[in-house]
Amino acid sequence: xxxxxxTATGAVRPFASRVPGHATxxxxxxxxxxxxxxxxxxxxxxxDVITRHLQHRGYRVTLVVNITDVDDxxxxxxxxxxVPVAALAEENAARYLADMRRLGxxxxxxxxxxxxxxxxxxxxxxxxxxxxxxxCAGGDVYMRVRSVPDYGALSHRKLDDLRSGVRITPNPxxxxxxxxxxxxxxxxxxxxxxxxxGRGRPGWHIECSAMAWRYLGSxxxxxxxxxxxxxxxxENERVQTRAALDSQDTPGVGYWVHNGMVTSSGVKMSKxxxxxxxxxxxIQRHGPAAVRGYLLxxxxxxxxxxxxxxxVEFARGLDRVGRLWExxxxxxxxxxxxxxxxxxxxxxxxxxxxxxxxxxFNTPAAxxxxxxxxxxxxxxxxxxxxxxxxxxxxxxxxxxxxxxxxLPGDQPRGASAGPxxxxxxxxxxRAAARMAGDFARAxxxxxxxxxxxxxxEDRRDGPVVRPRSET
RNA sequence: GGCGACGUAGCCAAGUGGUAAGGCAGGGGUCUGCAAAACCCCGAUUCCCCGGUUCGAAUCCGGGCGUCGCCUCCA
Length: 471
Hints:
The protein is of the alpha/beta class. It has three domains: 3-268, HUPs (Rossmann fold, 3-Layer(aba) Sandwich), CATH 3.40.50; 337-403; 421-467. Helix content is 46%, strand content 16%. The chain has 16 helices and 16 strands. The strands form five sheets. The protein has a five-stranded parallel sheet with strand order 5-4-3-10-11, with helices on both faces. The protein has a four-stranded antiparallel sheet with strand order 6-7-8-9, with helices on one face. It has a three-stranded mixed sheet with strand order 13-12-14, with helices on one face. A hairpin with a 4-residue loop joins strand 1 (3-6) and strand 2 (11-14). Helix 4 packs across helix 7 (230-245) and helix 8 (279-286) packs across helix 9 (288-296). The longest helix has 21 residues, at 308-328. The model has no long low-confidence stretch (mean pLDDT 90). The protein binds one RNA strand through helix 1, helix 5, strand 10, helix 7 and strand 13.
């Protein structure tokens, strides 16, 4: 039974979608004003696993991911670089999306951009104005926070607590310092669009309410993003949507799902601090499998303290999984369950994997079962069990489907086609030297092969060459 | 100051009332010409500290200490 943690209630609850068999999800994506770092990959990978598991549990999943392609910093950076806002946004978004594909993240059902959704945005603001939940002032339109009775219910804050700690620059146009902009009036040199309440551009929060409404209606089963979005972004989004669309007894969202931050030296990675580790670079140097696996090695709600050494260490474990795959990928299917502790690790793996993911998408536990399975398979296969090989193959395929695990051969991983001719020649020469009993020469050749970036392993059925892994 | 989360072996990390998964690193073996790979064995009488509840707590409650996130743009 799938259970999901919900930020609003602070509890893990059994999952049920409003429409049986169909789960809808909205995830806040990025504002592409600069290069993406590891932290930006986390929600994408996490939601990829969530989506895969929901589908595995029989749900049709409609996933909407947004890209905020107009915003203050985007405008700022574009002006600095002397390029159009749209061009800067598209460039960074394209790079981000390419990185996500490399990480094996499945495309969302809808990838929505704020600038392509001006109609629903304007329509939503008009509804808020008509209902008295918003007001025009100084060319802008603001949300009247006090018109919503339970403002703060998602982020567990009280209006009074917030007021005492306002750090927001006082804005003379606002009735209340906590009111926030739905629409920012036109300013010279900035992108703007026409609206009944004056030319301008959307505020940060309204786009998500509008796009969720457009693609999913007034109810969303799962709404996600980083924990840093809980306040004010999701709080504001929630009250906007409720004020505009819902009666007060329908919260509009089934489960708020927030992933923890990726930190560096104990501090959150952030574009503004510039302490992020460039994602593309990390993938380039360690491969997508390592990056993806590393992100899943910690439960999605926990903070992940990034360390390159930690990533490399985890990748070493993942290599064992890959080696098993190489050994069993051609094994014939085996259906009969195996007994004994080792046999059970193989036979029971599908159930254990599902159970782990059912428990609020516990990927570290799932990976633990995977490693158990790998060890059991290696042991039984060494003992000559064909059935173990068949079960291991099935299990690895299941893990690939559920976790997006990358197996050798799934995608180009450096020079996966085999060693270049000169290295292959060295390998052959070494094999001959070994046959002749000239071990000194064989060892020298192994050194030469390693210097070329390859490793030879002598197996019973002959030498195997593989690229030398990093570090 | 307010709100929220967290503190498990050298490192990473599951476990949230029934007697501590898994990975990496390390030590010892088996195998190997030597390696590598693989497998086997070894590590927390103990889960930040102090009280309490309970037959029983890493898990629940109270109090400390420490860390992080949010309260401003933020995945």
